[in-house]
Amino acid sequence: MGFDAIWISPITKQIDDPSRAWHGYSQQDLYALNENFGTARDLKDLATALHKRKMYLMVDIVVNHFGSSGFPTLTGGQGIYPFDRLDDFHNLCFVEDYTNQTNVEKCWLGDPMYPLADVRTTSPSVRTTYNDWIQQLMSNYSIDGLRIDTVKHVETSFWPQFQQAVGAYAVGEVADGDVRYVCPYQEGLAGVLNYPMYYSLTKFFSNTSHHSADLIAQMEDLSTQCRDPSLMAPFSENHDQPRFANATKDMMLAMNALAFTMLADGIPIIYSGQEQHLAGGNDPMNREAIWHKGYHKNTTLYTFIQKLNRVRKHAIASPKANYTTSVGKIVYNDDHTLALKKGPLVAVYSNRGLFAFPYKVSIPNTGFGAKTVVTEVLSCRNMTTARDGSVSTRVWRGLPMVFLPSAGLKGSGICGR
Questions:
Q1: How many CB atoms lie within 10 A of CB 298?
Q2: For 93-107, how does the pLDDT look when each residue is reduced to its tens digit (9 = 90+)?
Q3: Alpha-carbon torsion 224, 228, 230, 235, what sign?
Q4: Chain centroid to CA 204
């Protein structure tokens, strides 16, 4: 599909209970690998194979907690390593109030039957152990980056030193829709998953009755509140949220959500199975095994993602475009349509859906010259801008559109150029 990196589940050894450990978030031993995923040699071979393809390996890790056997007590012999002392963990209490940050950081996730022992990450010895471990893990397996689970459950002061020890890009999961809550975590980590954008974009694109105002406000907030939006990670599906197709089967809406995600500010993430238009609901139904579905390479969304990757790479390579560091600018909007300019391209998104009547939009402030031939690269249609550089077009069947100057497409492979 043209991606530059893959993100895999946590690789550490898990609690000896398949019903709890299959996803990788109930680790027991930092220094041992999950044998269900393979051997150390397999992991090294994966990194080598990716690097030969000029791709990166991103590994998921958990710092906040460990899987605890049976009832929520911590005694010797539970197999948790290297933290095997009671004072390496917070006293037992379960997270019950997500408006209370102390409760979020110091209490345990899970429940009495399936507890997740919360590590006392304020301890200097715990911090040193984690920093040493992550340096060793990155080096041993040639890992290029990290996705970090449950970041908001760890105090913010932990992250700057840990990020320094990582020595590479790390993106943290802060599962909250409030920009002012999420963005401060970027002071300690290079990036954070763009959950505020996720909630707004899925709300807008999954329902033809929703208006664009909330998404626009969220975009403006993110551009002013976050330290570096170019290092955030936009997404429209992941393993903790219902699939987009669980909300709507409308393929045009799915294509708009994907295009918006892929061409937004930051480093986009596409969840495995999204290209197959899987429709699982809440966890664990959203963690479908792809091998049961088939690795189909001719689906509508598979080929669509290929196009988007090709377009994004062309935009990044365009001279003086500064695509990866520039902030997308809204140049047109109405209740159901958004047009964004970012680098050399202008993208038009709609939430009217498959059964909408065609309607005309005129996009100003495109940055294109007067009477310039531009190509809508998802359909390969050419058109000429007006004297002021604006683009007038029709939105057909709710399809997204992406415009680029035709003259710059030579040798790109886009639309046969």
A1: 6
A2: 999 999 999 999 999
A3: negative
A4: 18
